[in-house]
Amino acid sequence: MSSANVSAEQLKLFIERIETLEEEKRGIADDIKDTYAEAKANGYDVKTMRTIVRLRKMDTNARAEMEALLDTYKAALGLEI
C-alpha cells in the first residue's frame, strides 16, 4: 500500500468522523432548542435563561469583573435603582 493510499484513507476517516460529529451536534442543538421551547411553554423567560447559562459558563473571576463593570456603567448612566 502506498503512502498516498494510506493518507487518503486516513483523510477519509477524519472527514467521516467530522461529519458524524456535525450530525450529532445538530441533534444536540435541536434538543437544546426543544428544552428552551418547553421552558417557555411553562412560563420561563428564555432570554434570561440563555443569559444565566452564558454566565454559568464563565470563570467566576471573569463573571465578577464583568458584573462590576456593568454596575459601573449602569451607575454612570443613572440606571441604578
TrEMBL record:
What InterPro entries would the database entry show? GapR-like, GapR-like_DNA-bd
Q: Which UniProt keywords apply?
A: Coiled coil
GapR-like DNA-binding domain: which residues? 8-78
- One Pfam family per UniProt: GapR_DNA-bd
- Classify the source by domain of life: Bacteria
Q: Which GO terms describe its molecular function?
A: DNA binding
UniProt-listed HAMAP family:
UPF0335
Q: Which family does it belong to?
A: Belongs to the UPF0335 family.
Q: What name does the UniProt record give this protein? A: UPF0335 protein FJQ54_11845
Q: Which organism is it from?
A: Sandaracinobacter neustonicus
